[in-house]
Specification:
By secondary structure, the protein is α+β, with helices and mostly antiparallel strands. About 15% of the residues lie in helices and about 40% in strands. The protein is built from four helices and 36 strands. About 25% of the residues are buried.
């Protein structure tokens, strides 16, 4: 419409200009949020409508399964910022309309991936619960549901530990470590520098207590003499950390005082003095559990009128009869010899060849042997100059493991005596040389 006004010498014309129309083609969309995304992380893009004329901006986002909400904020004249958080991986649809018209490039189809999510990393295995010194522990880590990321494992404690990580399959790892000593350790497992659930894991490394690994040896567990000290040793070095309790009582249930001395870590010398010529019972408990063979039955006899020394300290001796007509005694000799050979006793330095008790031995010496043993039944086994028993007794001791303990004790005694004897000879030689000079 044109309007003209006329006046003296003046003409004024007014022109009615049409209102601008919205133009969705002038809208621009930019940003990573319309190209890609990561589950659980904000995706952002911008929309510039400043050149598109008047109109309303409309943004709708749909995931693979469900629509998503988004936040549209005007940050300038016709300039908007759009933010949304993907909840699932896969292709998404971002529809941007201006004045009910799709803008250039709409609908956009960003691909959303499952990013590194430490909460979905799973770690499991005994190595995350406990450990044993000087032995390997292991555990496993599964990152298959956590997306791509960097796995890092560190172990700290009383001493630094460097774990070995082996890739079993993509996203599945085996971790092996060994600690040299007891203590409390922490296993730190991070994924993209973020701790996974329950990390750091607290590991208590201790030597497990094992009563069956406690070894008790010595004559004090077999026999005793009234009024004399009975001795034995207890070695707990391979049994872990636990309290050792030892008590001795006689057949009348009277307790006998016990002396326990730790001569080195977890190795003890034990002594007691029986006062009655009746059986005694030695209870050796590790963490309140009986060790193998406990309670030990100790036969206690009256103190002999004279102390008989056969010269067998630190030695293994078997006395036997060569003239017996008893088939049972001959049978027992053969089987005792077989038992000793199976244990290779005949090859040991502390073993003396079988000693005939009836040929080449005078009556006085033979009677001394019988008197010390308290019986006249052959074959008879002596260990460390103490009577152990006849064939039947030895078999019984072997079945309960006590024979091996006595043999081990004798080997130790023999080595100690040998060392002492060598030292005595060296000392005498030194004195002789000094005197000569």
């Amino acid at each position: 419409m044109r309007v003209r006004l006329h006046g003296p010498g003046v003409t004024v014309a007014y022109v009615n200009t049409p209102a601008p129309k919205p133009n969705a083609g002038k809208v621009s969309v930019n940003g990573d949020g319309v190209r890609e995304g990561e589950v659980g992380k904000p995706s952002v893009f911008s929309v510039d409508t400043s050149k598109a004329g008047p109109g309303n901006l409309d943004v709708k986002i749909n995931g693979p399964e469900d629509p998503l909400s988004c936040n549209v904020v005007e940050v300038g004249d016709g300039l908007y910022e759009v933010t949304y958080v993907p909840k699932e991986e896969g292709p998404h649809v971002v529809a941007v309309k201006f004045a009910d018209q799709h803008v250039p490039g709409s609908a956009f189809r960003p691909n959303v991936i499952k990013g590194a999510t430490p909460d979905n990393v799973v770690a499991y295995g005994k190595g995350l619960e406990e450990g044993t010194p000087k032995s390997e522990s292991e555990f496993y880590v599964d990152t298959s549901r956590a997306g791509d990321g960097n796995l890092d494992i560190k172990i700290d404690g009383p001493v630094p530990i460097e774990p070995t990580i082996t890739t079993l399959t993509p996203h599945h790892y085996k971790v092996v470590y060994a600690v040299p000593q007891e203590g409390d350790y922490n296993v730190h497992i991070t994924f993209d520098d973020i701790h996974i659930p329950k990390s750091p894991f607290h590991i208590s490394v201790r030597t497990p207590f094992n009563p069956s690994s406690v070894l008790a040896t010595g004559p004090g567990l077999l026999y005793g003499i009234v009024g004399r000290v009975s001795l034995f040793e207890v070695d707990c070095s391979a049994a872990g950390n636990a309290p050792l309790n030892i008590n001795v009582e006689d057949d009348q249930h009277d307790l006998v005082p016990v002396k326990v001395t730790e001569r080195q870590p977890n190795c003890y010398d034990v002594s007691f003095v029986p006062h009655k010529p009746i059986p005694h019972h030695v209870n050796v408990l590790w963490n309140n559990f009986n060790i193998k063979g406990s309670p030990f039955k100790v036969n206690v006899i009256e103190k002999p009128e004279k102390d008989i020394n056969l010269g067998g300290e630190g030695k293994i001796r078997v006395y036997y009869s060569t003239t017996t007509s008893s088939e049972k005694i001959r049978h027992n000799c053969r089987f005792l010899q077989s038992l000793m050979e199976r244990k290779k006793v005949h090859l040991r330095e502390d073993f003396e060849p079988w000693i005939p008790i009836d040929i080449g031995m005078d009556r006085e010496e033979r009677n001394r042997i019988f008197e010390k043993a308290g019986v006249r039944k052959t074959p008879m086994l002596f260990i460390d100059d103490q009577y152990v028993g006849d064939y039947d007794d030895v078999v019984e001791l072997d079945e309960c493991g006590e024979l091996d303990r006595l043999l081990s004790y004798c080997a130790l005694k023999y080595r100690n005596l040998h060392t002492i004897e060598e030292a005595r000879k060296a000392d005498e030689l030194l004195k002789m040389q000094t005197t000569t000079e």
